[in-house]
Amino acid sequence: MNDQIRISPIRLIGAEGEQHGIVPTMQAMEMARELGMDLVEVSATERPPVCKIIDYGKHKYAQSKKQGAKTHQQKLKELRVRPKTGVHDVDTKVNQARRFLEEGDKVLIKVQFRGREMQHIEEGRRIIEDMLTKLLDCSKIEKAAQMEGKQMSALLAPKGHK
Known about the structure:
single chain; Ubiquitin-like (UB roll); 2 domains; four-stranded mixed β-sheet; 4 helices
């Protein structure tokens, strides 16, 4: 940047992106100073090196903004149902799960059993299998339905992700 550029001549690109051709380094620095901007080396590997007249402060700020824009962090979303959960409520949970999967999150579906419901595990398995088949188009099963104490759970991952 500015005084750190030692090689002369350089290929100069103006503030608006216009080509100035091959120019002596001192002349390019003068042009940058007149505009109140900086002379920044864009490509040092080229012969002659390519330099551009830009406002370096704005350039650094824009780079930090780009870097600050994070990519989506995958989260684990949990949906709980019971063996006696109604069909419409299960469909609502399926729609919620579909939205989570489309956003790139993993979904853990849990069927919670309480008291006498433990005698009807097949009812809970039916609900969880029904949910899995409805979500098969937008997800892949990472962990199949299995009992863990008083709950049955299955883990789904979005299709496009690992």
